[in-house]
Amino acid sequence: MRTAHLLSVSLLSALAACGSTTDAASGSQEIATAPAGVTPAMTPTVTPAAAPAEEPAEASAPAGLYALDALTLGGEAMPLASLQGKVTVFVNVASKCGFTGQYAGLQELQEELGGADFTVVGIPSNDFGRQEPGSAAEIQAFCQENYGVTFPMLAKTGTKEGNSPIFDGLAGMTGSRPGWNFCKFVVSKDGSQAQFFKSGVGPDSQELRGAIAEYRAL
Q: 124 or 52: which carries more pLDDT confidence?
């Protein structure tokens, strides 16, 4: 009888343990089970939104003087935007003037400093004393044969108000216009600043070279 009683107690203990295990398993199953009617495949997957692609930086458009277009002495297009990044000396030139010898000094400047950040630009004009009467071909030949000019030469134009967008722009920046041949405008690399020098200020003068050095350092 004692043995039977011990067996009954053991059996009851085993059944109780099984019930606890079932409840625990049942509880775990309830936590893991999705709501009725919803399968794992139907559960939406949330994907983080992709970061918007960065827009490429736009190149700055030329403004003011450098937004203008010009023609070379040979009749080819030369947008002044091509001068951005260079300190430029614009000079109204003439072939039969007392200052015509300054071509030599201007060419020396070009040879010494010309390159990535500097250039001289000549602009023939017949406004003063009618000292530039020749054709484009004649002016070109004169400059090359007498002075070996290699800097850009633009088409012949007037310097008075309304005659040339370039001289109008330079006058707007400096408050000055050429009063005779071989006046000089030194323009900064970005075209936002300019200084004016009269005919008598030569290419080798400290004033002109000082302005060039100032703008090259910016």
A: 124
What positions carry a catalytic annotation?
Answer: 97
Number of domains in the chain: 1
Quick one: DSSP state of residue 216?
H
Over range 99-113, report the average pLDDT.
98
92 found inside a domain: yes
Q: Is the pLDDT of residue 37 over 60?
A: no
- Give me the domain span that covers residue 203: 64-216
Q: Which residue has the higher pLDDT, 11 or 35?
A: 35
AA identity, residue 210 = G
- Which CATH number characterizes residue 95's domain? 3.40.30.10
Bridge-partner residues for 184, per DSSP?
91, 197
The reply to whether 88 falls in a domain is: yes
Question: Chain centroid to CA 157: how far?
Answer: 29
